[in-house]
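Worked problem 6 (solution included).
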Amino acid sequence: MDLILQGLTAQRGVIEQIAHLARARVVVAIGEHAYRCEGISYNDEVKAQIDVATWAAHLDYAFIDRGRSLTNFKLLVMDMDSTLITIECIDEIADMQGLKPQVAEITEAAMRGEIEFRESLMRRVALLKGLDASALQRVYDERLQLSPGAEKMLAAIKAAGMKTLLVSGGFTFFTDRMQRRLDLDYTHSNQLEIVDGKLTGHVIGDIVDAEEKKRTVERVCKELDIMPSQAIVMGDGANDLKMMGIAGLSVAFRAKPVVRAQADVALNFVGLDGVLNLL
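Solution. The predicted structure is:
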C-alpha cells in the first residue's frame, strides 16, 4: 500500500514530515503538488495521525493499494450538484423566487442525512410552484460552473476508455445540458413538471433518491457487462452513499462529514482531477 499526498500547494518539507508519520521509505513526486510515499506503515493509529496532519496542512491523502490504475476500472459515476458542478441547482432556482435560504436549509439537512432525500426534494420542489421556467436557463447560463479539475479528469477518463455516468437527485434540464457539453455516456435525474411555462411544484415520475442512484449504477454496469467493483463513484451527500457503497473506489468530493467517513478516499482541497494521482 502507498500513501498519496496532494494539495493545491504542497511544500516538500511538510510532505516529508507527514511521510515520516507513516514511516515511508521513499517519497516520489508524481505531479506539481502530488507525492507518492512508498514502503509505509499502515494501521489505525497512523491513519489517525495522517488525517489530523493533512487537514491542518490543507492536503488530501489516500492509502491506495500499489498497482491500482485507471485500467482497473471501466466506468466513472458522478453526482452532479456540488460534485461535477459547484452549485446546488435547486438552491439557485429558489433564489429566483427569493426562497434560497429556506430551500438551502432543507438541501443541507438532506445532504447531511438528517432528512430522507425523497421527502426533502418534494418539499423543496413544492416551494418552486409558479416560478417561470426561464429561471432554469438563467441558472445554467449565469451560475452553473464546473468543479475545478472536471475537464482534466474527464479527458483522462475518456482516454483510458472508460464510460461516464452522471446520476443526480437534481434535474434533467441540467443533466441533459451537461451530457451534451461534456460528451457523457449516460445520465439519470429527476424531471420537473412544467405547465404553461411555469413550474408546477411537482416532479414527473419516480424520484431519483439514494436507492435509485444505486440501481442506476447497477443497471449501467449490467449494460456494460462489468461489475460494480469496476466503477469509480464520486459524490458529496448522504444520498450518494448507497451507490458509493457498491463501487470499486468511492470518492468523497468536498463532501459532508458522514460521506467522508464512509468513502474510500476524500478529496477536500484538490480538484476532481485529484483522483488521477491516486491511480
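Discussion: The two ends are 12 Å apart (CA to CA).
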